[in-house]
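Lecture 7, part 2: worked example. A protein chain together with magnesium ion.
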Amino acid sequence: MSEQFIHTDGTIIPVGIMYCIGRNYLEHAKEMGSELPSEPVVFIKPATAHAISGSKIAIPTFSENMHHEVELVVVIGKDCNNVSESEAMDYVSGYGVGIDFTLRDVQMKAKESGLPWATSKSFYSSAPVSNIIPIDLISEPNNCKIELFVNNKPVQSGYTSDMQRTVPQLISYISHVFRLRKGDCIFTGTPQGVGQVVSGDKLLAKLDDKITLDIEIE
Ligand code: MG
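Predicted complex, written out as structure tokens:
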């Protein structure tokens, strides 16, 4: 936990609400046995889910199957309500790479019972994020490469150009439904290749070779 987005130019913004998008990549939806949703699938993690690079993250005792999902993370720099897609990028502070840790066994049970996903997705330290690259250093967020290595082995690799909904579309949508505040962020969905992590695993996530996130599973 740190509950702060530390930008590479020194800007620090306290973490607000972490909005997460489910099934935003076709190949990941397929590997979960699902189709792309007609409306965005949104869930929320609290600031206590945030962790910084270098953190050790524990698997909660109530799960035996924690999965990694590497994602582009968009940090909001100014409050915004009801913004259009064409205005949306004016409210971005920067980008990072994050892991949406998911307790797949707990989530599957919740899905089967029609219950909320909160315990499977939003537990303590379930959302580590790298340091944040200021917006002017990433000109095209819809064409970034995100990668994840577990114990030096490549496990996930994807391009944000494959997202069903783009960064401005997601900002516009969330700003209409919830309103966005400075320090909120958006986990934009994961490409295919999600899988289980176990104690002792070392994870390295990368965004375009510009920034990395190092995590060890406790
Ligand atoms: Mg995810």
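The radius of gyration is 16 Å. The first helix runs from residue 26 to 31. Keep this in mind for problem set question 3.
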